[in-house]
Amino acid sequence: MALDLLQVSPPGPSYICLGGFTVLFSLVSLLIKEKLYVNEVVLGTVFGIIIGPFVTNIFAPRSWGSLNNTITLEVMRIVLVIGLFAAGVELPCAYMKKHAKSLLAMVVPTMAFGWVVVAAVIHALFPKLDYISALCIAACLTPTDPVTCAAITHGNFAKKHVPEDIRHILLAEAAANDGLAYPFLSISIYLTMETSVRTAIGKWFLVGWLYQVILGTVLGAVVGFIFSKLMNVSHKQGFINHGSYIAQYLALPIFTMGIASTIGADDLLAAFAAGCAISWDGHFHKQTEDDAFSSVIDYVLNCCCFIYIGAWLPFYAYDSPEYGITPWKLVLLVIATMVLRRIPFLLAVYKLVPEIKCWQEALFSGHFGPMGVSAVFVSALALTRLPTPENPPADQAQYLAATIQPIVSFVVLGSIIIHGLSIPFFNVGRIARSRTTSLSKTSSDHTHVADPIC
Length: 454
Description:
This protein is mainly α. The protein has one domain: Na+/H+ antiporter like fold, CATH 1.20.1530.20. It has 23 helices and no strands. The protein starts with a helix and ends in a 15-residue tail after the last helix. 44% of the residues are buried. Mean pLDDT is 82; it is low at 1-9 and 436-450.
């Protein structure tokens, strides 16, 4: 039996590819990330496509049958909770309190605007989907992916050319709105599955907001606060060493996720709240700031996660006329999503956000709203609440179940390419501009100051 299982699905080549890519990328990471400004998100996805079922067929997550969606959901969940916890820790002390006004303006209103606008575009391009179903698909695309955002904004180029305030607010927004995708998804699912609008809205308010979001946030904050105090006491008594602080980057988010998932609360918001709470007084951050282990964890998880996503992408479903899905419609959707999802709203309200000082920074902040791990996670979560589609689908819920991942995954692929390569193209433009300017100016000796966005 064991031999038969190995013959059906040998794990060795997949492990070789996953580990080999990480090792090889590490050998040239300085050249690729700091000179060419191409991050592991783009390269990992490309490598995943190469080893996936549509090129070499070494690693094929969608061949796992009924387990495929469950495994995908849990892989994305683990990567997200660790990334969200790390984001909370990396923010300055009491950041969420000091910048609550800015985040209030950026998170929910921006998500709501993008949600209804992208849903309208989806409904127009795919008329077989009613507007409620389009809202469900758009809910998968509302959160800004913290994993991709961190990979973009933490690089050497961002540190040189992007103000610290912008990098912090983008990271905090990405982390906060990730967990808030639950209410946008749940209202769409309830309206699709429930026969009564009143029942759907009631469940959405009680379950989606009060139970999942608020309870999840409070739970995470309490867990983080308790462990912060415990570590302070342990440190004063000499019971904890430096390595034990670093271990919390893995142990605490998984512990928090386990509690939140067990009671049905929002585990993503809980992990982020725990990260913010544990570093609220600065003690945890002070003990770990000189250690690179957390960035190593992020790096390895990012590589493996985006290799998985690249191999998971359903290329066969991108041309499915029976569902109204064609490549040109998907390309139009990617373009419309990039242009309309965040940029117009942030250009309109940026004066309410003190961290954004000009329209150029608002444009930059609107553009850098990548979609990746979080979109895949929410789409996999949606499938757990939708019926298994027949062929052809018997009703709108089945039609939604059949189309949600092809549409979401193509937009994710477009976002990875566009956002992942934005900084290299931006850098080429800066180099060309600086060379042109240098021809008309004489060189002088003075301290180099990074060019602002504005």
